[in-house]
């Protein structure tokens, strides 16, 4: 094929734009049923999302079977050798070719499948979001409007950010609602001198032992340690933003004994309440 080829699905397309996107529908023995072979890769990046059937990607004697939901990232210069899996009747994949913005560098650092080929598979909760974003990128990129490329690039940026967000969520899963409610209850009762775990557990309909287990599992500290941290944090806020007497600050966060309050405060912060206040002035 000549270099002037205008169909990005066929060999010879120049890919000179900052973003080109489309769907490659490969059915067995169709005109697109051939293996892409670019031993030197391309100048830009390619994202590839399998939507139907199966494809196979080969690199340095290794191969990977792409199934619906799999997203591959080929960086510049990476070998491109892929096509419909011989045992599958079809391989439909959406793709985005792009030149990244400079500040995307961190977002394009994906776990490697092999060589430099990146791989990501969204979990079930996020899968539809990524499918929708791919479709929107393709629609925007092919719309032909004055701002089509800019819209597509912004949608691609959102896709990369959504991946970063999903990874962060998996590393830091959201709090159990009962733990969140327990934290709120404790925060609302910092001045309660008769605090006990049983009252918090009753409020969130858990046994004290179950609450303690969940608390340590999700927050990494015990209920009592978390409460003490909140009391000291609230005391620091009051000392730095009000002229409330130190004894009153202590009572406000549940310490009737000023000397005991000062001792606990210094143990946690390295300074007495009066020293801490003086440092804020």
UniProtKB/TrEMBL annotation:
InterPro entries: AraC-bd (IPR003313), Homeodomain-like_sf (IPR009057), HTH-like (IPR037923), HTH_AraC (IPR018060), HTH_AraC-typ_CS (IPR018062), Tscrpt_reg_AraC-type_HTH (IPR020449). Keywords: Activator, DNA-binding, Transcription, Transcription regulation. Residues 180-279 form the HTH araC/xylS-type domain. Pfam families: AraC_binding, HTH_18. It comes from the Bacteria. CDD domains: cupin_MmsR-like_N (cd06986). SMART domains: HTH_ARAC (SM00342). This is Arabinose operon regulatory protein. The gene is araC.
């Amino acid at each position: 094929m000549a270099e002037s080829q205008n169909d990005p699905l066929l060999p010879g397309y120049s890919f000179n734009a900052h973003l080109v996107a489309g769907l490659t529908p490969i059915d067995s023995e169709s005109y697109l049923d051939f293996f892409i072979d670019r031993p030197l890769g391309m100048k830009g990046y390619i994202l590839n999302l399998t939507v139907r059937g199966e494809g196979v990607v080969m690199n340095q004697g290794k191969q990977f079977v792409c199934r619906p939901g799999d997203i591959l990232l080929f960086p510049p210069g990476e070998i491109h050798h892929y096509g419909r899996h011989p045992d599958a009747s079809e391989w439909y994949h959406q793709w985005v070719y792009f030149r990244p913005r400079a500040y995307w560098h961190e977002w394009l650092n994906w776990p490697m499948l092999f060589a430099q080929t990146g791989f990501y598979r969204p979990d079930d909760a996020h899968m539809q979001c990524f499918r929708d974003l791919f479709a929107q990128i393709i629609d925007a990129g092919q719309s032909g409007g004055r701002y089509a490329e800019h819209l597509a690039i912004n949608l691609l940026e959102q896709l990369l950010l959504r991946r970063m967000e999903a990874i962060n969520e998996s590393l830091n899963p959201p709090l159990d609602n009962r733990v969140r409610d327990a934290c709120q209850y404790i925060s609302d009762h910092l001045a309660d001198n008769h605090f006990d775990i049983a009252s918090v557990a009753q409020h969130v309909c858990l046994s004290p032992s179950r609450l303690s287990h969940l608390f340590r599992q999700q927050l990494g500290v015990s209920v009592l340690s978390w409460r003490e941290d909140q009391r000291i944090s609230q005391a620091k806020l009051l000392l730095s933003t009000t002229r409330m007497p130190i004894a009153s600050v202590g009572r406000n966060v549940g310490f009737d004994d000023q000397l005991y309050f000062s001792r606990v405060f210094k143990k946690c912060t390295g300074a007495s309440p009066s020293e801490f206040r003086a440092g804020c002035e």
